[in-house]
Amino acid sequence: MGKQLSMAASILCMAIVAMAAVSEAAVVEHTFVVHEMNVTHLCNTTKIYVVNGQFPGPTLDVTDGDTVVVRVVNRLDHGLTIHWHGVRQIRSCWADGAGFVTECPIPPGGDHTYRFNLTGQVGTLWWHAHVTCLRATINGAIIIRPKDGRYPFRTPAKDVPVLIGEWWQLDLIELDRRMADGNFDDNPLSATINGKLGDLSNCSGAPEESFMLDVERGESYLLRIINTALFSEYYFKVAGHTFTVVGADGNYLTPFETDMITVAPGEAIDVLMTADAPPAHYHMIALANQPPEPDPQIPVFISRGLVRYADVRGDNNGLPVPSPLMPSQHNTMPSYYFHGNLTGLAYPGRHRVPMHVDERFFITLGLGSLCRGGKKVCKRRRSNETIVVATMNNVSFHHPTTTSLLERYYDGTGEGVYTEDFPENPPHPYNYTNRDLIPPGPLEEALEPTFKATKLRRFKYNASVEIVFQSTALLQSDSNPMHLHGYDFFVLAQGLGNFNPKRDVKKFNYHNPQLRNTVQVPRTGWAAVRFVTDNPGMWYLHCHFEFHIVMGMATAFIVENGPTPETSLPPPPPEFKRCGANGLTQP
């Protein structure tokens, strides 16, 4: 009896200690001041747009269950919003920060406060500007730690946000204006790792500064790799080291060993790297991959950083610094295999895949064209009489510029602003991945005409939705990182070529699929996702390549209220600022 009491007391004591170890939910407050700053790279001084003088911007370091309050002060000459990429925003759609979708931009000299809760998500997300191309430099990481401080993998010695991006010499506002006019000939000058171009970029013989990661032999480091780039997916490697992939987009993954990470725009990949190589210096490389068609002359975007072991001299003890062997920039197959190897970590309480489907969509992703000047008839095949646009099911999304879709929906004044008839399928089937559609010609000319419209889709609360995204070869052969605001979805399968329901549904993973907010739809391939509409509001769906957003590869989903106040979107919070007549938030 005494032993039993002693054992019971020990168990109770351990339970009390475990409960005490669970961190109290907190309110984490920040102020983001957005302003211009001059930075010199490649022998040129460039004006960029930053938060609090930092590029990348501040990291939000929070714990599961915390409430985040961020006051954004806009000191630019134009409006902007901040989007909290991957945050579920349960019943807080007002704080999503999608420009002209959930709010109008913050005006020059104005401010706006975002308040949202982070519950049920652990891992890495990020934040970025969501108006024009400003996210290239206005961005930062969000680290969400588990309540009890325990991970389902070895506790790392250190967290290391690794933000991969691009360096643009062209002003980002001008870049957006050019793309809106159909000019897509501009490219960045280099890749960046945490804002550093690396020693492969130089001018006048002086190498650029590199990102440095200092490590102790035997320790493990949690690299939180985020692709903030406008244009490219990236390969990432460290010479002499391997990675264990453990999470993505704020969700755990089944541990997966690899020596190379591929990360598409919008994605966040968590990997453990153990410093188990002989003490020395080792190069890390971020290399953009580009489809070989239609333009094999796209420049190489690359940045090189350095992993430095402790007690090794600055000259690497006189030895050459090894660099990792990278794939060809035009080889996109490593991305396909990497994403195909990822599965969700099975654990008690994990969300289950809905086995029934209420709404099915087959969405083609491609390009098309509009006649300039509002004409009905014009010469196609990328002529100067047309503007090339991006489409989903042959609809190019018309983004509002003076109002917020969420406000219109909530107020019941959406008539004349949007319609709710986004199509479930493309207007007519064709061989979506026929490479003969990439160059202008008679085959693609028949499929090229499209139109602009603000077509949305409405869903009942708690509906099960399945979407098969199909990348096409129409005037291009890009992959498409598709991002849905306000939701995580199960990635059931991916494949190359045209989706065939009779054959490919058999490949669906219902046991342990990834939960993601961004799915990389392979180049001339497809990806199938499924989710339940349990979060009421107005939720933006778009490709995370910036040129595809500007061109119209987007829509928005309306999710109706549920039967109770707890399943309904509440009124705008006191800090929310409505749109004014000029398309900016009111003072």
UniProtKB/TrEMBL annotation:
The UniProt entry, under Pfam families, shows:
Cu-oxidase, Cu-oxidase_2, Cu-oxidase_3
The cofactor named in the record is: Cu cation
Gene Ontology BP, a term: lignin catabolic process
Give the enzyme's EC designation: 1.10.3.2
Look at the named UniProt entry and state the broad enzyme category this protein falls under: oxidoreductase
Q: Describe the reaction catalysed, as an equation.
A: 4 hydroquinone + O2 = 4 benzosemiquinone + 2 H2O
The UniProt record lists the Plastocyanin-like domain at 34-148, 159-293, 422-562
Which CDD domains does the UniProt entry name for this protein?
CuRO_1_LCC_plant (cd13849), CuRO_2_LCC_plant (cd13875), CuRO_3_LCC_plant (cd13897)
Subcellular location per the Swiss-Prot or TrEMBL entry: Secreted, Extracellular space, Apoplast
Per UniProt, the cofactor note for this protein states: Binds 4 Cu cations per monomer.
The region annotated as signal peptide is 1-25
Task: Please give the superkingdom of this protein's source.
Answer: Eukaryota
Gene Ontology terms, MF aspect: copper ion binding; hydroquinone:oxygen oxidoreductase activity
Q: Where is this region: Disordered?
A: 563-587
Query: What InterPro entries does UniProt report for this protein, alphabetically?
Result: Cu-oxidase-like_N (IPR011707), Cu-oxidase_2nd (IPR001117), Cu-oxidase_C (IPR011706), Cu-oxidase_fam (IPR045087), Cu_oxidase_CS (IPR033138), Cu_oxidase_Cu_BS (IPR002355), Cupredoxin (IPR008972), CuRO_1_LCC (IPR034288)
Q: Which Gene3D superfamilies match?
A: Cupredoxins - blue copper proteins
Q: Where are its TM segments located? A: none
GO CC term, one of those recorded: apoplast
SUPFAM superfamilies per the UniProt record, alphabetical = Cupredoxins
The family assignment reads: Belongs to the multicopper oxidase family.
General function of this protein: Lignin degradation and detoxification of lignin-derived products.
What name does this protein carry? Laccase
Q: Which organism is it from?
A: Panicum miliaceum
